[in-house]
Amino acid sequence: MTLRLVMGWVFFYAGIDKLLAGDWSAQGYLMGAASREGSLFPGLWETMAQNYVGLIDPLNMWGLTLVGLALIVGAAVRWSAFWGSVIMLFYYLSGYPLENSLLIDSHVVYIALLFGIGAFGAGRILGVDEYLERTAVVENNPWLRYVLG
Q1: What confidence score (pLDDT) does residue 149 get?
Q2: 63 phi and psi, to 5 degrees?
Q3: Any stretches that span the bilayer, and where are they (predicted)?
């Protein structure tokens, strides 16, 4: 549970900080990723910065905030952990080449932790998922258990 709360706070704070800034944009970061020597997929980052920043900014801000909030309250933990891992994968790939490591950095550690949180079903431990799994909606639709946990 502690790890779920800590990871939740990391995501929630990163997202809410961007939301409250008012003028935050990923465009500068993406252009930096595109122009960095040795960057992976420079064309992808440049295209995202030039053509899709209007979509990337809210996805990033709200994605971080909602993943963090879901982890904190323990709601749809597996679903949230999965999407948190996707966000971290994009950060990892856009940060190449790594400054302090050859292959592994904090983003990979976050991905591993999030998969562990989801696999363990950490939302059932002092989380909303424990309650949700006992509702008629989930009991009548067992596939919903895959997003809870």
Answers
A1: 67
A2: -60, -50
A3: 66-93, 108-126
